UniProtKB/TrEMBL annotation:
Organism superkingdom: Eukaryota
Listed name of the protein: Thioredoxin domain-containing protein
UniProt xrefs under InterPro entries: ERP44, Thioredoxin-like_sf, Thioredoxin_domain
Record-linked PANTHER family: ENDOPLASMIC RETICULUM RESIDENT PROTEIN 44
Organism: Acyrthosiphon pisum
Pfam families associated with the record: Thioredoxin, Thioredoxin_6
GO molecular function: protein disulfide isomerase activity
Domain Thioredoxin: 15-142
GO cellular component: endoplasmic reticulum membrane; endoplasmic reticulum-Golgi intermediate compartment
GO terms for biological process, alphabetical: protein folding
Length: 409
């Protein structure tokens, strides 16, 4: 009897200690876990998916989001009660200034997504509703790998694809592949061929992993991974280099995040029926202009969907392709006498932006005689068409949605 009493007492003491330790490292006010310098690293390391709301109590947008995020956290906990799967957390940026600085928070609220302890390439910018948050979590936790059943199954040619051929799903190589796929599923489609059907695609007991570019990219971007397929770091670096290309496609969905990077845009507006011009542009940039990626974001844009910016330049879809630099103040059109197929002309265009020449000519007009149009035999400058104001600046984070902590672009 006495022995049972002490056993029960010891169990209760253990539960009390465990509960106290958990609450110390995971203080909860509401349903979202309040993160601080004591528990943030442990939380990130011990969960597959962590979504963090960085907020300030004085920010009205943060105040609107708080009850929504708390309810979403409660529903997610009901859907995924198992430990280590998913956590919705929150950081008070006025209190936890070191964490806010670590994650480079420049606006409130900012919702960061972390997968396997690492920040995702994109933060959450979707609808701020309970249903949207829950749906986002469910999508993030879906299996990122699509298994193909035959050698003749076709991958999506509209998207960048990473495909691996494995002996079985229990292998270390497959588990590493899955982890990489989880990190990059928003940038590439991941396919796997497993088992006897795909033995012809790889030597015995050896994994083959390939990258296949989308149909608007040159075939030279087709690569086979040459490293150790069981090494996460090397495979992740290789896949990231391929899935996050030097030349990206800008859309209405990703414009906010790309604009927030702060680099001027060098835009290649194309007609959706003309894929060859995109391939050529990507090949030129990839071959000759890699060193310029620190100065501009190289982007392609569907000239039919983005007809409005072209109209500001006096251009229509029949004028495509059109090359433009958007500095977030003005849109500068590629000189008519220049040829985008010549990489030196593109390089000069970027140099002219940074030397101030494009801006000076905006205010003072063309500075070279060759740029002056002769009208009716008289040496009079043609009426200047001033560069329009930036269009893409308007797609940056809005003051109607965020409290911005720094000057606008």
């Amino acid at each position: 009897m006495n022995q049972n009493y002490w056993k029960i007492f010891a169990n209760k003491l253990f539960l009390l200690f465990f509960s106290s330790a958990y609450l110390f490292y995971n203080p909860v006010t509401g349903n979202a876990v309040k993160l601080n310098s004591q528990n943030v690293d442990m939380t990130l390391a011990s969960n597959e998916l962590v979504i963090i709301n960085f907020y300030a109590d004085w920010c009205r947008f943060s105040g609107i989001l708080t009850p929504i995020f708390e309810e979403a956290a409660a529903k997610v906990s009901e859907l995924y009660p198992e430990s280590g799967k998913v956590v919705l957390g929150k950081v008070d940026c006025d209190t936890e200034t070191s964490i806010a600085s670590r994650f480079q928070i420049t606006k409130y609220p900012t919702i960061k997504v972390l997968i396997n302890g690492q920040p995702a390439k994109r933060e959450y910018r979707g609808k701020r509703s309970v249903e949207a948050f829950v749906s986002f979590v469910q999508k993030q936790l879906e299996d990122p790998i699509q298994e193909v059943s035959s050698l003749f199954a076709k991958a999506d040619v509209k998207s960048r694809v990473v495909i691996g051929y494995f002996e079985n799903k229990d292998s270390q190589e497959y588990q590493v592949f899955r982890k990489v796929a989880t990190n990059l599923k928003d940038d590439c489609l991941f396919y796997a061929g497993v088992g006897e059907t795909f033995r012809a695609m790889h030597p015995p007991n050896e994994t083959i992993i390939e990258f296949r570019p989308d149909r608007a990219s040159p075939k030279s971007e087709h690569h086979t991974f040459r490293g150790n397929s069981a090494d996460y770091d090397s495979l992740n670096i290789w896949a990231t280099d391929n899935c996050l290309p030097l030349v990206r496609e800008i859309t209405f969905e990703n414009a906010e995040e790309i604009t927030e990077e702060g680099l001027p845009f060098l835009l290649f507006f194309y007609h959706p029926d003309d894929l060859e011009s995109i391939k050529l542009f990507k090949e030129i940039v990839g071959t000759y202009l890699i060193q310029e990626k620190q100065r501009v974001n190289f982007l392609t844009a569907d000239g039919v969907k983005f007809a409005h910016p072209l109209q500001h330049l006096g251009k229509r879809h029949t004028d495509l392709p059109v090359v433009v630099i958007d500095s977030f103040k003005h849109m500068y059109q590629f000189p008519e006498k220049s040829d985008y197929k010549n990489h030196e002309h593109l390089k000069t265009f970027i140099d002219d932006l940074y030397s101030g020449k494009l801006h000076r000519e905006y205010h003072l007009g063309p500075q070279e005689i060759s740029a002056i149009e002769v009208i009716h035999g008289h040496n009079q400058p043609a009426e200047q068409t001033m560069p329009p104001e930036s269009t893409f600046k308007k797609l940056a984070p809005s003051k109607n949605r965020y409290t911005l902590l720094k000057e606008e672009l």
